[in-house]
Design brief:
This protein is of the alpha/beta class. The chain folds into 2 domains: 148 residues, 3-Layer(aba) Sandwich (Leucine Aminopeptidase, subunit E, domain 1), CATH 3.40.220.10; 180 residues, no CATH class. Helix 12 packs antiparallel against helix 13. The two termini are 14 Å apart.
Length: 352
């Protein structure tokens, strides 16, 4: 573990191995295959000539030459014939055999393209579902960082209804605290009819403004102003690390079951486990809340112990509120939706 969907050019991924969606000859072609051969240089083609081709669903490995990777794993996906010729099983085998080759060659990081979803005509949403299922299934028994690399902004969602439901929830509940006139009108109306509700709104706005200043989910590292509110944490009986470990025990899970279900790297979990003062990022807290299938009050409590609160001025927070309220605890399904909304994904790498 873990697994992450990214928008990038696969030929620029600095990983141990990139996977090439090749044809059976392994001698280059169009699409991803052509791009990889072009970036790797003629040496790749020369080595491929010695391999004798590759059958559909199988995989073979070569050096990566001029690519920023150590290896290229070539796999041949199925051509789509309506799903009647074993396409799903063959596509799943592409991912499985490629990952097995990567593990045999001690690769710790691997990047896949969307196999068969281009010229071979496999429906993109179904191809995404097969990729996620195959990769996450393999990672339950292996420690490896796997990227599924998507080029461009075409939708690959398997659940368009869930995407629409989350979008509607965000539209209904997201509060842009920079749009002051609408908030001021709402505050004035509330203060005239319901002082308690107005006070709650003021508190919510204050928390939202604080979160906006202290947390920027798009940045790769926590800004100095994003340090947890330790005064608030010290007022509780446990910090984040101890509360998390207690929740794991209460749920009857092992540590490994929890961090894998949270899509969190083992080394990152070790840091959290061994350092009671470790301060995670907000998406990491959400990842553990999902893995533990916490209720909304339990999630708010866990966030509080890491120095955060739920904010209506954060689209990520609003989306996570929807998932938790509706008991949607499949982190990979959640990440597909977050990816389509260009929001931070849950779990994944070491920077948590």
């Amino acid at each position: 573990m873990p697994f992450e969907i990214v928008r990038n050019d696969i030929t620029k991924m600095p990983v141990d191995a990139i996977v090439n969606a090749a044809n059976r000859s392994l001698l280059g072609g169009g699409g991803v295959d052509g791009a990889i051969h072009s970036a790797a240089g003629p040496e790749l083609l020369e080595e491929c000539r010695t391999l004798g081709g590759c059958e559909t669903g199988e995989a073979k490995i070569t050096k990566a030459y001029r690519l920023p990777a150590k290896y290229v794993i070539h796999t041949v996906g199925p051509v789509w014939h309506g799903g009647t010729r074993g396409e799903r099983e063959l596509l799943s085998a592409c991912y499985r055999h490629s990952l097995e080759l990567a593990a045999e060659n001690r690769c710790e990081t691997v990047a896949f393209p969307m196999i068969s979803a281009g010229a071979y005509g496999y429906p993109k949403d179904q191809a995404m579902a097969v990729a996620v299922e195959a990769i996450t299934g393999f990672l339950m028994d292996h420690d490896m960082m796997v990227y599924l690399v998507v080029f461009g902004h075409e939708s690959l969602l398997n659940s368009r209804k869930l995407f629409r439901d989350v979008q509607e929830y965000i539209d209904d509940h997201y509060v842009d605290t920079h749009f002051r006139p609408s908030l001021e009108i709402r505050r004035k109306q509330l203060w005239r009819v319901d002082e308690e509700a107005a006070l709650n709104l003021d508190q919510e706005i204050g928390e939202s403004l604080h979160d906006n200043m202290s947390y920027n989910a798009s940045r790769p590292a926590m800004a100095p102003s994003a340090a947890p509110d330790w005064k608030r944490i010290l007022q509780t009986d446990e910090g984040f690390s101890r509360r998390l470990l207690r929740l794991i025990d209460e749920k009857g899970m092992t540590d490994a079951q929890c961090y894998k279900k949270a899509n969190v790297d083992r080394k990152l979990f070790s840091k959290i486990h061994n350092n009671p003062d470790y301060s995670p990022k907000k998406p990491t807290v959400f990842a553990f809340a999902i893995a533990l299938e916490l209720s909304l009050p339990e999630t708010k409590d866990l966030l509080k112990r890491a120095g955060f609160s739920l904010s209506r001025s954060s689209k990520l927070d609003v989306a996570m509120e929807y998932f938790i309220k509706n008991k949607i605890y499949n982190i990979f399904q959640i990440n597909e939706i977050l990816f389509e909304h260009d929001l931070p994904l849950l779990g994944s790498g070491m920077n948590g």
